[in-house]
Specification:
about 65% helix; alpha/beta; Growth Hormone, Chain: A; about 850 residues; 8-stranded mixed sheet
Length: about 850
Amino acid sequence: MPTLLYVFAFASGFAALGYQVAWTRMLSMSFGSSTLAASAVVAGFMGGMGLGAWLYHRVGDRLASALRAYALLELGIALSTALATLLFLRLPPVLAALASTAPGFVDAPIVRVVSVAMLLGLPAVLMGATYPALCRVLIHSADEVERRLGWIYGINTLGGAAGSMVAGFAMIELIGSRGTVLLSNALNLIVALGAFALVGRETRGTRAPDPSEVDERLPGGLPDWLAGLVLFGSGLATLGFEIVWLRALHYVLGAGTYVLSATLSIFLVGLGLGGLLSRTLLRLGRPEWSLGWGQLAVALFTILAIAAEHRILTSPALFDRISAFSRDALALPWLVSLVTAVGVVIALVLPATIWMGLAFPLASRLFVRRVDHLTARAGLAYLLSNLGSIAGAIGAAVFVLPTLGSVGGTKLFVAVNVVLGLLVLLHGGDRRVRIGAVVASLALLALAARLPERLAFSPLVARENPRAVTRLFEEESDLGTVQVHAWQGRPDALAMSIDGVVIGCSAGWSPGLHSKQLILAHLPMSLDRDIRHTLNLGVASASTLRTLARYPWVETLDAVEINPAVLRGTAHFPDAVVLEDPRTRIYVEDAVHHLLRTTTRYDLVINDAKQNVKFGGSSKVLSEEIYRYSLERMSECGLFAQFIPTLYPNESLRLILRTFAAVFPETEIFLDAPSAIMLVGSRCPIGGRTRPTREALEAARAPREIEDVFVSDATALPALWVSSAAELADAIGPGPRNDWNRLLLEFWSMRMPPISPRTIAASMRLVQPVRAEDAPPPWLDDVREEWQTIQLINEAMIRVNEGDPAGAEAIAEAAQARDPDHPLLRRVLR
């Protein structure tokens, strides 16, 4: 029977991580992806589990059959998680309704935290209670405490690692968050039915004594306060390390969803293996020695891990071979990159996490003391550890990373482990052990002090030009590492990056990226003269916001930025003066949360959130939910503008277009070739509106900028139009959408082949269909000549990227004959 119960523990852990992965995604739709939202989920989940473990002995011990109690818990988990999931799915409309009647109430952080805790409460309490319940079923003597306590924890944690891996790599993509919950429900039901079946066998056989009936003491030399402190402190350090390492590993591995899932799973594998190994160490005797030296071992391997990562980042040979940001890595097949990343995580993370995993079972064993106190003391140990984990997770995200950074945070948590290990060994060791503990602790602190102040990470262009590019600003947090760089001697060449991806720049850094920032504002403003109230999702260099501000008829300039470090970095850009404009209102929060809670109706919403085709997080800002929430906050005929890189392969681009067109009844597509596709959506027809006159554009100081970069006549900017969603319906075809239930783009982006010019050409070819008539739609009749010239230039750029320079040259010559000075010709001729 013990073997089957261990299988149940594994399956239960698998299901628990399935719930956590799925619920985190679901709750981000209601509360956003901010630090507070993520911390609320962690606190609600772990706090509930700790509370359930602590309360178990008050209720579960009253049932004569320990197996029946365990079976009822698993059944309760299946039912309560199914109910909680239904509530999660109904939260967004409920919050939207509340926002319109009581916006201050919905906006209160305490309301969001309490809401999450209430929704997660019952399922999490029941999950936590399964740990002491299994202890009661499997442990009936002091010997079994030594043999089985760590195995229950270890096997359950390994099940969680498997659940995290399978959910992150397969379940979410194939069956979605809701399907993942249903599969986890099924696992809990199977476990419950299996446990009920064992109850029948138990009643027919000889029942083992209940641990509450066994009067046996366990040897150990630690007082309760110290064992409890280690439980809390090791939980704090473990979750603190997890948050810090996830940030630090970004600098080598990037931010892909597969890498994140693999990292979390390997972290849990280490903890689980540590739990299994605790049995071996307990057989050696003196568990307090194993616990103390284990804490010092955590500190040692953590120091070595950060030192090794620093070596990777500072060694050109290692960086080019290992880092996801090297040019060599960008050309590798995705599976090779993933295997490399997993190997790096195993080498850096696994050794320390195995020692971390030893802490809970060893400290719990010392904390239990008596077999007849097993469920009460094991439950209290679980609660103390989880309270420490909550403090570590929230503290690392909210305080440690923004204040100390990943290296400083590592030093802090190393110090926690060193202090815990030293206290245990000073209290429980003989004279030689005490001396060795002091020497080892001082040596570890000295090693930690020698770690660099920061990890040497910069965007590739800064790394390749260390003498020419200067770092002006850097701030690290769980939301990303924000940096601002500048070319020396060129004040107009600045760029802002997050985790190495440039998200905004001034004109001198990258003409292509800067033109995207400008057209996001100029294009919708050129389509509708009646835009008064605007919302930007993202700030970065503030170029888009500053461009909007130049239009004197715009009355409000709202902007949402989730990362406060971005706003501090924005101050280095000349366009940051727009932040002082009295029309400007900046909201430091998640875009989803703002769209759910605001009561403002916007005439224009610009989605300028961070995008990178190899970054799975882009899938959220290109999701059906973001589009739908935006549409619900737009005025009756308001516009929504979105830029899409032409680097997406056709399958992904079709997914994006299909999702966009499913939300916006009217969708028009514009091409800022060769790099950007512009989508504009609305409830009302986009063409035929009152467009600004040249005099109005001159009042906005727009003509020169537009005519230098995009078109010959500033009033003809809509001539960048290439198609409508209705016209492309057959090319887009039927198929899935990118919604938050599955976020297909998140997974597809990780499996993208290396980007080539032909990818860009195929994207442009998809949105610019060949027409039988060389004429735009009627609402563009007044810019027909400009439109025809641009169509030729676009075709020339497509031919260039298809590898047909002769064809491109012939078409470019035809365009040049029509308009020799057209600004887009420079993009072909260069």
